[in-house]
Amino acid sequence: MDLIIEILVEMTGDICILRPQGDLDSSNSSSLKKQMLEQLQKGRYRIIMDLEKVPLIDSTALEVLVAGMKVCMQNNGSIILVNPCEEVKNLLEIIHFDRVFSILPDRDEALKVFRKNDCN
Q1: What was the pLDDT predicted at 117?
Q2: In 10 A of CB 70, how many CB atoms?
Q3: How many angstroms separate the CA atoms of 104 and 60, rounded?
Q4: Architecture of domain 7-104
Q5: Is pLDDT at 1 greater than 60 in this prediction?
Q6: Angle, vertex CA 85, rays to CA 83 and CA 86, nearest 5
Q7: Domain ranges (residues) in the chain
Q8: Residues facing residue 16 across a β-bridge
Q9: Residues 68 and 36 sit within 8 Å (Cβ to Cβ)
């Protein structure tokens, strides 16, 4: 049985900020996938994934992020990960997610990256 995780959604211009509230794992990754697909279907290809309230992330959730990133990149967008706790950040670095995703300390830095790309 899939559990539902609360994922708060905010918009800053055309930039979508997703804020999951709790562990992202096999028990609730379908909630993340559903929310990601909903945003992509709305044409939102610039996404900030705020991991501040995510103490744990597993491979099923990481697969959702990779699939989302592929769609974003095909549409000249990106997913930027922000605010990971030390454990999550270490995991992302160990599995080389930092080669695929920008991992930044906070939302303001991610917004700057997206806005800088608007000028190019």
Answers
A1: 76
A2: 12
A3: 22
A4: 2-Layer Sandwich (3.30)
A5: no
A6: 125
A7: 7-104
A8: 11, 47
A9: yes
The structure tokens listed for 3 are: 């559990």
* Tens of pLDDT, residues 7-66: 999 999 999 999 999 999 999 889 999 999 999 999 999 999 999 999 999 999 999 999
pLDDT for the residue numbered 118: 72
Q: What is the pLDDT of residue 5?
A: 87
Cα separation, 92 vs 87, whole angstroms: 9
How crowded is residue 58: how many other Cβ atoms within 10 Å of its Cβ?
Answer: 14
Q: pTM for this one?
A: 0.93
CA distance 21 to 84: 12
**pLDDT (tens digit per residue) in 56-98:** 999 999 999 999 999 999 999 999 999 999 999 999 999 999 9
For 96-99, which contacts have Cβ atoms below 8 Å and span 24 or more sequence positions?
97/62, 97/65
Distance CA 29, CA 115 (A): 30
Query: Which residue bears the tokens 């918009």?
Result: 11
CA 87 from centre of chain? 16
- Tokens 């300390």 identify what position? 105
Residue pair 3/26 in contact (Cβ under 8 Å)? The answer is no
